[in-house]
Amino acid sequence: GILYETIVDAHVRSQQSEQALSFFNEMTAKCLVPTSNTLNNLLESLVESNNFEKAWWVFNEKKGFVVYDLYTFGIMIKGCCANGHLNRAFEVLGVMESLGLSPNVVIYTTLIDGCCKNGDIERAKQLFNNMGQLGLTPNQFTYTVLLDGLFDCGLKEEGFELFGKMKLDGVLPDAHTYSVMINVHCNNGRLNEAFDVLDEMREGGFSCNVVAYNTLIGGLCRRSRVMEAEKLFGQMKGTNLDPNLITYNTLINGFCHANKLDKALGLFNQLKSNGLVPSIATYNILIVGFCRAGNPERVSEFVGEME
RNA sequence: CGGAUCUAAGACCAGAUCA
Fold first, then answer.
1. Strand B nucleotides with an atom less than 7 Å from a protein beta carbon
2. Which of A9, A59, A61, A286 has the fewest CB atoms lying closer than 10 Å?
3. Strand B and A253 CB separated by under 7 Å
4. Distance in angstroms (rounded) separating the CA atoms of residues A249 and A276
5. A152 CA → B3 C1’, Å
6. How far apart are CA A23 and CA A112, in angstroms?
Protein backbone atom coordinates (compact mmCIF):
# COMPACT_ATOMS: atom_id res chain seq x y z
CA GLY A 1 0.00 0.00 0.00
CA ILE A 2 2.64 2.47 1.09
CA LEU A 3 4.71 1.43 -1.88
CA TYR A 4 1.95 2.35 -4.31
CA GLU A 5 1.32 5.64 -2.53
CA THR A 6 4.95 6.53 -2.98
CA ILE A 7 4.90 5.66 -6.66
CA VAL A 8 1.75 7.65 -7.32
CA ASP A 9 3.12 10.65 -5.44
CA ALA A 10 6.40 10.46 -7.28
CA HIS A 11 4.65 10.66 -10.63
CA VAL A 12 2.52 13.51 -9.45
CA ARG A 13 5.59 15.41 -8.35
CA SER A 14 7.28 14.90 -11.67
CA GLN A 15 4.11 16.07 -13.41
CA GLN A 16 3.27 12.76 -14.99
CA SER A 17 -0.37 12.71 -14.09
CA GLU A 18 -1.35 10.00 -16.55
CA GLN A 19 1.19 7.55 -15.17
CA ALA A 20 0.20 8.52 -11.65
CA LEU A 21 -3.36 7.67 -12.58
CA SER A 22 -2.52 4.24 -13.92
CA PHE A 23 -0.60 3.31 -10.76
CA PHE A 24 -3.49 4.67 -8.74
CA ASN A 25 -5.87 2.41 -10.66
CA GLU A 26 -3.56 -0.55 -10.27
CA MET A 27 -3.51 0.10 -6.56
CA THR A 28 -7.26 0.30 -6.16
CA ALA A 29 -7.70 -2.77 -8.35
CA LYS A 30 -5.80 -4.65 -5.66
CA CYS A 31 -8.21 -3.27 -3.09
CA LEU A 32 -5.52 -1.14 -1.51
CA VAL A 33 -7.09 2.07 -0.24
CA PRO A 34 -5.17 5.28 -1.00
CA THR A 35 -5.16 8.07 1.55
CA SER A 36 -7.15 11.23 0.88
CA ASN A 37 -3.87 12.99 0.49
CA THR A 38 -2.75 10.79 -2.37
CA LEU A 39 -6.13 11.08 -4.04
CA ASN A 40 -6.07 14.85 -3.72
CA ASN A 41 -2.62 15.19 -5.18
CA LEU A 42 -3.61 13.00 -8.08
CA LEU A 43 -6.83 14.89 -8.77
CA GLU A 44 -5.07 18.22 -8.68
CA SER A 45 -2.37 17.11 -11.03
CA LEU A 46 -4.94 15.74 -13.47
CA VAL A 47 -6.86 19.00 -13.38
CA GLU A 48 -3.73 21.07 -13.87
CA SER A 49 -2.60 19.01 -16.84
CA ASN A 50 -5.88 19.58 -18.64
CA ASN A 51 -7.22 16.15 -17.86
CA PHE A 52 -10.26 17.37 -16.02
CA GLU A 53 -12.50 14.65 -17.42
CA LYS A 54 -10.20 11.99 -16.01
CA ALA A 55 -10.25 13.67 -12.63
CA TRP A 56 -14.02 13.79 -12.84
CA TRP A 57 -14.11 10.09 -13.63
CA VAL A 58 -11.89 9.23 -10.65
CA PHE A 59 -13.93 11.47 -8.41
CA ASN A 60 -17.17 9.73 -9.35
CA GLU A 61 -15.69 6.25 -9.39
CA LYS A 62 -13.96 6.21 -6.01
CA LYS A 63 -16.70 7.68 -3.86
CA GLY A 64 -17.12 5.49 -0.83
CA PHE A 65 -13.84 3.72 -1.45
CA VAL A 66 -11.38 6.50 -0.70
CA VAL A 67 -12.23 8.99 2.04
CA TYR A 68 -13.01 12.40 0.54
CA ASP A 69 -12.21 15.51 2.55
CA LEU A 70 -12.67 19.24 2.07
CA TYR A 71 -9.53 19.39 -0.05
CA THR A 72 -10.93 16.79 -2.42
CA PHE A 73 -14.06 18.83 -2.91
CA GLY A 74 -12.18 22.09 -3.20
CA ILE A 75 -9.98 20.71 -5.97
CA MET A 76 -12.95 19.31 -7.86
CA ILE A 77 -15.00 22.47 -7.52
CA LYS A 78 -12.17 24.54 -8.87
CA GLY A 79 -11.66 22.08 -11.71
CA CYS A 80 -15.33 22.16 -12.66
CA CYS A 81 -15.35 25.94 -12.67
CA ALA A 82 -12.16 26.24 -14.66
CA ASN A 83 -13.64 23.96 -17.31
CA GLY A 84 -16.88 25.84 -17.60
CA HIS A 85 -19.03 23.39 -15.65
CA LEU A 86 -20.61 25.58 -13.02
CA ASN A 87 -23.52 23.18 -12.66
CA ARG A 88 -21.16 20.32 -11.89
CA ALA A 89 -19.41 22.47 -9.30
CA PHE A 90 -22.68 22.80 -7.43
CA GLU A 91 -23.27 19.08 -7.83
CA VAL A 92 -19.96 18.52 -6.09
CA LEU A 93 -21.06 20.84 -3.31
CA GLY A 94 -24.22 18.76 -2.97
CA VAL A 95 -22.26 15.51 -2.73
CA MET A 96 -20.09 17.08 -0.10
CA GLU A 97 -23.01 18.15 2.00
CA SER A 98 -24.70 14.78 1.63
CA LEU A 99 -21.61 13.26 3.23
CA GLY A 100 -22.13 15.54 6.18
CA LEU A 101 -19.25 17.89 5.46
CA SER A 102 -19.87 21.62 5.88
CA PRO A 103 -18.27 24.01 3.43
CA ASN A 104 -15.53 26.28 4.70
CA VAL A 105 -14.41 29.67 3.50
CA VAL A 106 -12.10 28.17 0.87
CA ILE A 107 -14.93 26.18 -0.69
CA TYR A 108 -17.14 29.24 -0.77
CA THR A 109 -14.45 31.47 -2.17
CA THR A 110 -13.74 28.95 -4.90
CA LEU A 111 -17.42 28.81 -5.80
CA ILE A 112 -17.80 32.57 -5.79
CA ASP A 113 -14.80 32.92 -8.04
CA GLY A 114 -16.19 30.22 -10.31
CA CYS A 115 -19.53 31.99 -10.61
CA CYS A 116 -17.80 35.25 -11.43
CA LYS A 117 -15.56 33.70 -14.05
CA ASN A 118 -18.50 31.88 -15.61
CA GLY A 119 -20.61 34.98 -15.87
CA ASP A 120 -23.02 34.38 -13.03
CA ILE A 121 -22.40 37.39 -10.83
CA GLU A 122 -25.84 37.19 -9.24
CA ARG A 123 -25.14 33.77 -7.89
CA ALA A 124 -21.75 34.92 -6.68
CA LYS A 125 -23.38 37.69 -4.71
CA GLN A 126 -25.93 35.29 -3.26
CA LEU A 127 -23.25 32.93 -2.07
CA PHE A 128 -21.35 35.80 -0.53
CA ASN A 129 -24.43 37.03 1.27
CA ASN A 130 -25.23 33.56 2.57
CA MET A 131 -21.89 33.04 4.20
CA GLY A 132 -22.88 34.67 7.47
CA GLN A 133 -25.78 32.25 7.92
CA LEU A 134 -23.38 29.37 7.58
CA GLY A 135 -21.00 30.81 10.11
CA LEU A 136 -18.41 31.65 7.48
CA THR A 137 -16.49 34.89 7.47
CA PRO A 138 -15.32 36.26 4.11
CA ASN A 139 -11.57 36.83 4.11
CA GLN A 140 -9.16 38.67 1.82
CA PHE A 141 -9.50 36.01 -0.86
CA THR A 142 -13.27 36.11 -0.77
CA TYR A 143 -13.48 39.87 -1.07
CA THR A 144 -10.88 39.96 -3.79
CA VAL A 145 -12.59 37.44 -6.05
CA LEU A 146 -15.92 39.15 -5.70
CA LEU A 147 -14.44 42.59 -6.31
CA ASP A 148 -12.76 41.32 -9.43
CA GLY A 149 -16.01 39.74 -10.58
CA LEU A 150 -18.03 42.88 -10.00
CA PHE A 151 -15.57 45.01 -11.93
CA ASP A 152 -15.42 42.51 -14.74
CA CYS A 153 -19.11 42.95 -15.36
CA GLY A 154 -18.93 46.68 -15.08
CA LEU A 155 -20.54 46.96 -11.65
CA LYS A 156 -18.15 49.64 -10.54
CA GLU A 157 -20.21 51.33 -7.89
CA GLU A 158 -21.02 48.05 -6.19
CA GLY A 159 -17.36 47.18 -6.27
CA PHE A 160 -16.26 50.39 -4.66
CA GLU A 161 -18.91 49.92 -2.01
CA LEU A 162 -17.72 46.42 -1.33
CA PHE A 163 -14.14 47.63 -1.02
CA GLY A 164 -15.33 50.07 1.62
CA LYS A 165 -17.29 47.38 3.40
CA MET A 166 -14.28 45.12 3.41
CA LYS A 167 -12.27 47.66 5.32
CA LEU A 168 -15.16 48.46 7.67
CA ASP A 169 -15.44 44.77 8.43
CA GLY A 170 -11.82 44.77 9.45
CA VAL A 171 -10.60 42.63 6.58
CA LEU A 172 -7.37 44.20 5.48
CA PRO A 173 -6.86 44.44 1.73
CA ASP A 174 -3.66 42.73 0.63
CA ALA A 175 -1.50 43.08 -2.45
CA HIS A 176 -3.96 41.13 -4.63
CA THR A 177 -6.88 43.24 -3.50
CA TYR A 178 -5.01 46.44 -4.24
CA SER A 179 -4.05 45.19 -7.68
CA VAL A 180 -7.69 44.60 -8.48
CA MET A 181 -8.47 48.16 -7.41
CA ILE A 182 -5.58 49.56 -9.40
CA ASN A 183 -6.76 47.57 -12.39
CA VAL A 184 -10.29 48.90 -12.36
CA HIS A 185 -9.05 52.46 -12.29
CA CYS A 186 -6.63 51.79 -15.10
CA ASN A 187 -9.38 50.25 -17.18
CA ASN A 188 -11.44 53.36 -16.65
CA GLY A 189 -8.54 55.54 -17.66
CA ARG A 190 -8.39 57.05 -14.17
CA LEU A 191 -4.66 56.94 -13.70
CA ASN A 192 -4.62 59.40 -10.84
CA GLU A 193 -6.98 57.22 -8.85
CA ALA A 194 -4.88 54.20 -9.70
CA PHE A 195 -1.80 55.85 -8.29
CA ASP A 196 -3.77 56.90 -5.24
CA VAL A 197 -4.55 53.25 -4.61
CA LEU A 198 -0.86 52.50 -4.98
CA ASP A 199 -0.16 55.02 -2.23
CA GLU A 200 -2.78 53.40 -0.06
CA MET A 201 -1.23 50.05 -0.76
CA ARG A 202 2.15 51.29 0.39
CA GLU A 203 0.62 52.79 3.51
CA GLY A 204 -0.87 49.39 4.12
CA GLY A 205 2.64 48.01 4.20
CA PHE A 206 2.89 46.52 0.73
CA SER A 207 5.48 47.63 -1.73
CA CYS A 208 4.55 47.82 -5.35
CA ASN A 209 4.92 44.36 -6.81
CA VAL A 210 5.31 43.14 -10.36
CA VAL A 211 1.61 42.75 -11.02
CA ALA A 212 0.81 46.25 -9.77
CA TYR A 213 3.56 47.67 -11.95
CA ASN A 214 2.30 45.71 -14.94
CA THR A 215 -1.20 46.98 -14.39
CA LEU A 216 -0.07 50.59 -14.15
CA ILE A 217 2.23 50.30 -17.14
CA GLY A 218 -0.65 48.89 -19.17
CA GLY A 219 -2.97 51.63 -17.99
CA LEU A 220 -0.53 54.33 -19.01
CA CYS A 221 0.03 52.73 -22.39
CA ARG A 222 -3.66 52.58 -23.14
CA ARG A 223 -3.88 56.31 -22.46
CA SER A 224 -1.01 56.80 -24.89
CA ARG A 225 1.35 57.74 -22.09
CA VAL A 226 4.09 55.34 -23.13
CA MET A 227 6.94 57.53 -22.03
CA GLU A 228 5.62 57.53 -18.48
CA ALA A 229 5.13 53.81 -18.75
CA GLU A 230 8.74 53.45 -19.72
CA LYS A 231 9.75 55.59 -16.76
CA LEU A 232 7.79 53.34 -14.45
CA PHE A 233 9.48 50.35 -16.02
CA GLY A 234 12.81 51.91 -15.16
CA GLN A 235 11.71 52.61 -11.63
CA MET A 236 10.66 49.01 -11.30
CA LYS A 237 14.07 47.73 -12.29
CA GLY A 238 15.63 50.22 -9.91
CA THR A 239 13.88 48.57 -7.00
CA ASN A 240 15.30 45.15 -7.73
CA LEU A 241 12.04 43.84 -9.05
CA ASP A 242 12.50 41.69 -12.10
CA PRO A 243 10.08 42.50 -14.89
CA ASN A 244 8.35 39.36 -16.05
CA LEU A 245 7.12 38.36 -19.47
CA ILE A 246 3.84 40.16 -18.97
CA THR A 247 5.70 43.37 -18.17
CA TYR A 248 7.57 43.12 -21.43
CA ASN A 249 4.52 42.18 -23.47
CA THR A 250 2.57 45.08 -22.05
CA LEU A 251 5.24 47.63 -22.74
CA ILE A 252 6.13 46.25 -26.15
CA ASN A 253 2.47 46.52 -27.04
CA GLY A 254 2.47 50.11 -25.85
CA PHE A 255 5.44 50.99 -28.03
CA CYS A 256 3.90 49.25 -31.02
CA HIS A 257 0.76 51.31 -30.68
CA ALA A 258 2.83 54.44 -30.36
CA ASN A 259 4.67 53.47 -33.52
CA LYS A 260 7.98 53.27 -31.71
CA LEU A 261 8.99 49.99 -33.19
CA ASP A 262 12.66 50.45 -32.48
CA LYS A 263 11.82 50.61 -28.78
CA ALA A 264 9.62 47.57 -29.10
CA LEU A 265 12.42 45.63 -30.73
CA GLY A 266 14.88 46.73 -28.09
CA LEU A 267 12.63 45.37 -25.36
CA PHE A 268 12.14 42.16 -27.25
CA ASN A 269 15.90 41.62 -27.26
CA GLN A 270 16.21 42.69 -23.66
CA LEU A 271 13.63 40.15 -22.56
CA LYS A 272 15.51 37.35 -24.24
CA SER A 273 18.84 38.40 -22.82
CA ASN A 274 17.23 38.38 -19.39
CA GLY A 275 16.49 34.72 -19.80
CA LEU A 276 12.79 35.06 -20.52
CA VAL A 277 11.18 33.13 -23.32
CA PRO A 278 8.80 35.01 -25.62
CA SER A 279 5.28 33.60 -25.69
CA ILE A 280 2.66 33.40 -28.40
CA ALA A 281 1.33 36.69 -27.04
CA THR A 282 4.73 38.34 -27.49
CA TYR A 283 4.94 37.32 -31.13
CA ASN A 284 1.35 38.27 -31.74
CA ILE A 285 1.96 41.76 -30.44
CA LEU A 286 5.06 42.19 -32.56
CA ILE A 287 3.54 40.71 -35.70
CA VAL A 288 0.48 42.92 -35.48
CA GLY A 289 2.66 45.93 -34.73
CA PHE A 290 5.07 45.42 -37.59
CA CYS A 291 2.23 44.55 -39.95
CA ARG A 292 0.55 47.83 -39.21
CA ALA A 293 3.83 49.59 -39.84
CA GLY A 294 4.21 47.84 -43.18
CA ASN A 295 7.34 45.89 -42.35
CA PRO A 296 6.82 42.42 -43.82
CA GLU A 297 10.49 41.38 -43.50
CA ARG A 298 10.36 41.65 -39.73
CA VAL A 299 7.01 39.93 -39.66
CA SER A 300 8.31 36.86 -41.42
CA GLU A 301 11.35 36.89 -39.16
CA PHE A 302 9.07 36.64 -36.15
CA VAL A 303 6.94 33.98 -37.73
CA GLY A 304 10.03 31.93 -38.48
CA GLU A 305 11.35 32.38 -34.96
CA MET A 306 8.10 31.20 -33.47
CA GLU A 307 8.43 27.58 -34.53
C1' C B 1 -7.88 14.38 26.06
C1' G B 2 -4.67 17.94 23.92
C1' G B 3 -1.10 19.32 20.36
C1' A B 4 2.09 19.43 15.61
C1' U B 5 2.73 18.74 10.29
C1' C B 6 0.93 17.86 5.11
C1' U B 7 -2.77 18.40 0.05
C1' A B 8 -7.70 22.86 -2.13
C1' A B 9 -9.28 29.53 -3.12
C1' G B 10 -7.84 35.51 -5.43
C1' A B 11 -4.77 40.23 -9.07
C1' C B 12 -1.51 41.91 -14.54
C1' C B 13 -0.29 40.88 -21.38
C1' A B 14 -1.69 39.88 -27.61
C1' G B 15 -4.90 37.89 -30.79
C1' A B 16 -8.82 34.36 -32.47
C1' U B 17 -13.77 32.32 -32.42
C1' C B 18 -19.00 31.83 -31.38
C1' A B 19 -23.59 34.20 -30.06
1. 6-15
2. A61
3. yes
4. 11
5. 44
6. 34
